[in-house]
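Problem statement: downstream parser choked on a complex file, so we are re-checking the raw output for the pyridoxal-5'-phosphate run. The parser issue turned out to be on our end (a line-ending mismatch), but while we're here, posting the original submission so the record is complete.
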Amino acid sequence: MSEEGALAPLAHQRGAYLRRLPAVDEVLRHLSAQPWGQQVPRQALTRAVRQVLARYRQAILQAREPAALEALSLSLEAIAQQVQALLGQAQAYRLQRLINATGVIVHTNLGRSLLAAEAVANLQRVARAYTNLEYDLEKGERGSRYVHVEESLKALTGAEAALVVNNNAAAVFLALQALAAGKEVIVSRGQLIEIGGSFRLPDIMRSSGAILREVGTTNKTHLRDYAQAINERTALLLRAHTSNYRIVGFTAEVSLPELVELAHAHNLPVMEDLGSGTLIDLRRYGLHHEPTVQEVVASGADLVTFSGDKLLGGPQAGILVGKAAYIETIRRHPLHRAVRVDKFTLAALEATLKLYADPEAACRQIPTLAMLTLPLPAIAQRVRRLRRRLPAAVQAAYRLRVIDGASAVGGGALPLEALPTKLVALQPSFCSVSELERRLRQHRPPIIARIAHDQVLLDLRTVQEHEIPEVAAALCALVPKP
Ligand SMILES: *Cc1c(COP(=O)(O)O)cnc(C)c1O
């Protein structure tokens, strides 16, 4: 048979299917007779019906063979079901809770830090009521929104003054614009960083109006390199924390105290972009040394910037601490108004900072710190809790094994730190490894795992205690029933 001969009956069939498709009104009448259909606003219902019918039309027109047409069910029942599913999707939140089984603690794609219970409670208190956000209750007049966190930031870091903006990128940008627009900022070539989400230090500097003055080489920068670059146009010496990588081997970096001594001899400030910024000395928990904000302030840095939602474990924010005169110049800059923080951030940040008054308690109550300092036996305990909820047949279907592995800090903090962990390794007998990863991701709530060496790996370090039963239930549900 010629090709046309084969297609003609198909075109004919397509026409018949299109004619059988009910009219919008007919579907609406059918839906209005059902209790759930009566609860949906008429306009939304009509829109959904039109969308579903349009999908049917498209499927009919694109059918390449009779079987594709026969697979379409044109009954009012089937169409009603699709309308209901579509409305359900539209009502579900796009931004949704998920379970992080990747073992990456400060995972930027997954929303970085979880707030401490106290921070959530304070956020809720503040969100539902008027507050003294910018109102001085003593004097009965306009106040500053920053007083709520300023004192604790000063007390915790030892700095003279503090300011909080929308995020650390904004903090760096604002500081450069306020202190160095049209002037030169000296940076070591070993610190011209790019971090995730297109934060490139050279680009930030250019758009702030500061002129980048690179010194040294990728692996070595000496004090004399900085000294030779200083001139009458210099505004600032900048150090950036090489967050997500390390230059190792034949290297030299100028220490902060040396740089401060040089800068101050020329009446210039030193600014350090710490990135993650921790307030707790993590060596106590067997981690590598990450300079704390207090140490950097004590070493004489005039201005220090860091994130609120990385190692600090609070809400997204950019925190600036340092000498009062510089903080004041930044505070008065017009751009400051464009990157100011809202009351929710301040509420969550104030509560988070309060927890730092007792570092031991902070490590228990701030989820980021709790996950970071979680001892290996506690992770093994989580694995046992999960396995107790999995029948032997389910474990067998996944060929479940427990192996040693490493969690990552993430967020550009401690890039070389591999935190020892216990991983649940799955090699399902009923589907491929990538298919299992996909099904876990599409589960409600989604469970995000990683794949390595042809296994799906679950790291329970970043799975919260109360989520373990949910992970177990998902694993059970995904095994096909015999
Ligand atoms: C993360 C980071 C930033 C950006 O901070 P955000 O809070 O994400 O805006 C800037 N500099 C360094 C060194 C960082 O690690």
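For whoever reads this later: The domain at 117-365 is CATH 3.40.640.10 (Aspartate Aminotransferase; domain 2).
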